[in-house]
Batch of 4 targets.
Target 1
Amino acid sequence: MKGFAVAIIFVIINVIAATIFLIVTTTSISSSILEEEKLSKEALERILEVYSNKNIASREYYNAIIKIPRLDVYTVNALGNYISRVERIENDISLIDKPLTFQEYQYLQARIQENINKINYVARNYPTLRNNVGYMNTSRNLTPIIEDERNSIKTYNNHIIEYNKLTSNFPSNIVAGIMGKFPYLTFETGTNIISQTERLFN
C-alpha cells in the first residue's frame, strides 16, 4: 500500500513538473512571437515612411523629366502610371495583413525604380537630360532615399524571417496557431517581385 502511495505521488509530481514546463515553454514561445511581430511591424512602418518620401521625390522627378524632349515616351508614361497607381494604395501598417495589396505595392515600387533606372541610364549619353537642372536636383534627392529603402527593407526582412520561423516550425507553430499568428510576406524588390507578380499586376 505504501509503495502504491509513493507511485501516485511520483506520478502527480511528474504531471505538475510537465505542466509547469509546458506553461513556461508556451509563455516563452508566445513572448518571442509577439516580440518579433512587433519588431516586424515597426520595421514595416519605417519602410512605409521611406516610401512616402520616395513617392513624393519620384513624382517630382517625373514632373522634371516629362518636360525634356526626345525621352522614350513609353518609359516616361509608364513611370507616371506606376507613381499614380502606388499613390492610390493606402500607405499604412495594415498592408502586412493584406497579402495581395502588399504584393501589388511592392510590384509598383519595383516598377517605379526600374523606369527611373532606365531614364538615368539614358542620361549618360544624353547631355540635354544630364545637364537639366530639374533632372539633376530630383535625381540627387532620390539617392539617399534609395539607400534608406535598402536598409529598411533589409531590417524588415530579417525580423520577418525570424517571425516566420516561429509561426511555421514545430513546436512553436502550434503555439502560433493557437494565438492566431501566421507567416507574413517578406518585402521583395526589383526583378524578384516583378517576375513573381507581373501577370497579376501589370
Target 2
Amino acid sequence: MIAILIPFQSVGDFVLKSNIDNYIKEYSFCIRDYSSDLATPAAHYSVDYPRMALFVENNLIEEVACYEELLYKGRNLIGMKIEEFISHTGENFVGEIDCLDFEDDGLPQYVYEFESIGLQVWVKGRKGNILTIIASSKYKEN
C-alpha cells in the first residue's frame, strides 16, 4: 500500500470514519484494546509496511498515524523540516506548538496542529525532521 493522504478522507487504503471490520481480512494487524481504560470503546491497530497505526473508536477509524511514509501533493511529508512542510502544503499551523520530552535523548518533540488539513505533525527537536504525522477525521471546517 502507498500511504497517499486525502485530507479528512483517507490515508492509502484506509478511509477515515469507515468500519475497521472492512480491513480485518486484508491486513495483519497488531491490535491493542484500550476500551477498559476509556469511556468509549477504543483500540490501536498497527501495520508494518508502511509503518502506521490506526486509532479506532466504536469500530470506526478516527485517526491514522504515519511513521515512514505519507504522500501529499506528490511528496513524502515524513522526514521533511517543518518549514519545508509548510511551504509544500501551503498551510499554517494553529495555536501553540506543544513541546513534549519523553525520550532520554535530550531532544524534545514539537507538535504542530494543521487543522485546515486535519494533521498533527511531530518534529524531533526545534529544527529537526518530521517523525510522525497523524491524519484525523476531525477539525474539518464547515
Target 3
Amino acid sequence: MREEESEADWDAEWIETEKKMAAQASYGFRTWTPAPEEDDPFDPADLPDFEPVSPASQPDMARLFFLVAVAVLLLFVLGFLDVLMFDSQWWIVLGLLGFGSVAAGVFVSAPWAHRPDDDGTRV
C-alpha cells in the first residue's frame, strides 16, 4: 500500500497538528468573526438617474398591426359564436394574418438601435 511504502507517520503528524491548533486558541475552525461595520447605510436617493427605455422604431405601424390582430380575433370570436360562416380556407388565412400581424407588431415595437454597452435586456 501507499502508506506502508512511504516512511511518514501520518498519525503522529495529525496528533502534532491537533496539539498546535489547541495551543493557538485564535487558530481553529470556528474562530471567524464578522468584519466591523464600515458601509454607509443604503439610500435609494443616491442612485443615479435611470436611462429611459428606447422608444419603438415605428409606433404607428405597431399600433396598426396590433389593431389588425384584434380585428382578426374579433372575427374568430364571431365565427365561434356562429355569427359568421366562412370556408375553412378563409379561417386558415385569417389565422395566419392574425399571427403575422402580432409578429410584425412586436418587431416594429422594438427600438431602432441600442447603445454600444446595451445588450438589449429590459428588467
Target 4
Amino acid sequence: MKKVLKSFKFYLLLVFLLLIGGVYLKDKLHKREVTQFISWKPRPKLVASQFIGDGKAVAIQWETKKELDEALEAQNDDREISVERPINGSHRGNYIAQVSYKLKTDVVTPGLDRKHKTLGGSRIDPISNRSNKPEKGEYWLIDIYDIKDNSIKKHTFDMFKIVRELNEKYIPLAEHTGTLYYDKDDQETYLTLGILVGSKDKYVVKPGDIHVETEYNTKVGLMNIQTGKLSLKTTSGKDYDQLRNDDQKSYKVTHPFESNLKNNFDSKISFFDSRLRYKIKDSENETIPLKSTYPKVYSILSKGHNEKTDGDYEKGEESYLYFLGPEDLNFDIPILELFYPRAGSDTLKLFYNYTIPAEYSKDGQEHLVKNKEEFFEYFKGSPNQN
C-alpha cells in the first residue's frame, strides 16, 4: 500500500512539474512570438457608428484593444519595440483612412537614436535591409472608409503590394504616410504614402569611432483611393508638395469656421480635419443637451474620453464625430451648441467673446462677438464670398 501511495505521489508530482513546464514553455514561445515584431500600429476596428443630420455627420467608435495589449506586452519585454497607440487616421470629405502595421523592422529611416550601426548597437533591423514583401505574421494595411448615403463601406489595400506595383524595388515608409488630400482640379482624393527608393552606406572613420552611415533616397507617393493605384503625381499633374499646398488653401476656403484659429471652443473640444473629439466631464453628464438629443452619439463619444478613464490610448479606444462634405454652418453650429450646457451662463456659450478675423468678416474688419446672432451678422461664408 505504501509503495502504491509513493508511486501515486510520484506521478502526481510528475504531472505537476509537466504542467508547470508546459506553462513556462508556452509563455516563452508567446514572448518570442510577439517580440519578433519591432514596429506596431494596431489595426483599428470600427465597433459602433451613428449618423445624424440626414448623413451630414457620423459618430464612430474605434477599438484596437486586443492587438494593442499584445503590442504593449512586447514593448514591456523590449523597450526598443515601437508602438503607435493613438487611433487618429485621416479624414477628407466623405472618406476616412486608417493605416496599420505589424513589422519585424523599423518603419522609418533611422533617427539620431539609431543613426548608425556599431558593434553592440541596436538589434533593430533598419528598413533598408528588409524585403518589400511581408514575412510571416507581418502586415501593412490601408483601410479606406467610403461614407455616403448613411452607410459606411470599407476597402482594404496592401501597402507592400501597392508600392511594389509602382516599382518592384521600392519599399514602403511610415514617414509622410496616411494623410488624405483632395485635388480640386481632377476631383479625386489621394492618400500619401512614404517610399524608400534606395539607400547607400558610407564608412565614417574618426578618432575612436568607426561606423557606417546610411544615406536614404525617399519620395512621397499619392494613392488614388478609388482605384488603389499609386503614382508620384495626380492625374492633374501635381506632386505631393503641390497637392498638399493646394488642398490646404482650398480647405481653408471651404471650411472657414473650422479654419479660424481664433475660435474659442471649450478646452474639452478638439475640432480639426472636420473631426470633433470631446472629453466628457462627469459634472456635465446630465447638463449638455447632446445626451438627450443624440444619446447614441453621446455614448460613442464618451468611449475613451471620459474624465474617469485614465490612459485612453492604453485602453485602445477612440471616438470622433466626423462632419461630412462641405462646411454647412446651419448644421454644424447647432451641433456644436449641443456640447455646451443649455442652462449655463453666457460665458459658457459657444460664441461668447468669439473673434472673427478680418478675412472672415463681411466688412473686412475684425469683430469680437458675444452670441450667435452677432456671429451671423458679421461672419461671411468663406474668404472669397462677400
